[in-house]
Amino acid sequence: MTTNTEKIFTFIDTYAQSKEGLYLEAIIEACEKWLQGDIQPELSETVTKEEIRRGIQLAILKGMKQHAQPHHQMTPDSIGMLIGHIAGKLAAGQQDLTLLDPAAGTGNLLYTAMNVIGNNVTATAVEIDDILVRLSAVTAELLEHPLTFYVQDALRPLLVDPVDITVSDLPVGFYPDDDNAVNFELVPAEGHAYSHHLFIEQSMNHTKAGGYGVFVVPANLFDSEQAASLHPYLKTRTIIRAVIQLPDSLFKNTAHAKSILVLQKPVEGVVKATPDVLLAKVPSMTDRHAMALFLQKIDMWVAES
Predict the structure, then answer these.
(1) Which of 43-57, 63-77, 102-116 has the lowest mean pLDDT?
(2) 3-state secondary structure 37-91
């Protein structure tokens, strides 16, 4: 039996292959026609937001392989689901939750998190690449997710109100705009600043006091060349709540291994005992029993803290 996800992918792929030009542009056209009711996939009555997201995601992944660009990368579902689980537990019982992704790309990580969290969540997405924003926007409409988009360099001034939780798969590398980098505490004394360091600072600037940042970061974040400047910033401006190492099997090259960093923004004037930092390693995500135990560990950590 063909699943709704497969039907959505086939619908978009068939349309895209019938068109000349960029495959990613054709995905946008197909989704717009679906929204307008001109053409649409034949789906079962109980289609879920996750089925829609995954179907569109498969088409986008195909389009990205055909027109590969370094910044056109998508956070794997396994990581997105884990971040969504963590964010959902941190926000348990909270009404009208607000999220921010300052490096949203196609929105896949953000939408995965929103689908896991469920109702009463709105989000803001920042992305500089026009075609990625258009892909993200049409996906948000089909998912019926309330989103505000900003098409800009996220390290420039953001007119974004502070949010409850920031989630992001941070861009890794050097930030080329030295003139703008000097506006950040994490600018190095010499050379280009690390983009992922500046994104952490910008994200926490736009997170509410008591709120959280849940980031995908390089596994060597605390051992890198500019780590010496990052340590005092994190100590004075944030509370490190968790460092969770992702399985090496998720990455083609172990040099590109990632971790999940969970930060909390302190509440000014409120002095609390520094909580223990959760240091953990995610088991193989194909081992269901091990993953179930790991998620229980996450749930207990949230409950205790």
Answers:
(1) 63-77
(2) CCCCCCCCCCCCHHHHHHHHHHHHHHHHHHCCCCCCCCCCHHHHHHHHHHHHHHC
Each residue of 217-231: b (16+ CB within 10 Å) or e? bbbebeeeebeebbe
Tokens standing for residue 297: 């560990």
Torsion of CA 183, 189, 191, 197, to 10 degrees: -50
Using alpha carbons, select from 28, 48, 11 the residue that is nearest to residue 137: 28
Residue 176 structure tokens:
């080329």
Instruction: Tell whether pTM > 0.85.
Output: yes
**pLDDT tens for residues 185-218?**
999 988 899 999 999 999 999 999 999 999 999 9
Sign of the CA dihedral with 27 first, then 251, 196, and 68 last: negative
In angstroms, the CA 244 to CA 289 distance is: 18
Is-contact 66 16, C-beta < 8 A? no
Residue found by looking up tokens 């999220």 in the block: 99
Q: Which CATH architecture has domain 77-304?
A: 3-Layer(aba) Sandwich (3.40)
Cα distance from N-terminal residue to C-terminal residue, the chain? 45
Is 166:102 a contact under the CB 8 Å cutoff? yes
Burial class (CB in 10 A: 0-12, 13-18, 19+), 190: exposed
Enumerate the β-bridge partners of residue 263.
Answer: 213, 240
CA distance 278 to 124: 28
Tell me the domain boundaries of the chain: 4-66, 77-304
